[in-house]
Amino acid sequence: MLPPIISVAMMAAMGGIDDFWRTRTIAEAEDQGYSHLRVTYSGCGRISDLPWPLLLGRPGIAANTFLSNFKLRCEKCGRNDPVLGVKKHA
Known about the structure:
- The protein is of the alpha+beta class.
- The protein has helices at residues 8-14, 17-22, 26-31, 52-56, and strands at 36-40, 47-51, 83-87.
- It has a three-stranded antiparallel β-sheet.
């Protein structure tokens, strides 16, 4: 039997991963070995991977900045409420 498919919108409604990472800082994610922020927009399904150095280069962003404090908007659908996660590049 295959596991159920969970959409991005369902994951956002359930909380879980997104809520956990919204309360963490860049430094905490880096210390755990993660290399970038993964942003998923439920409006169009677009996924963007943003490496820490790119985020840290933005004005007002430091290692102690919470991941939920980024102002992000999708160029494709215009939504500004992405689902956040972190990933490790192999």
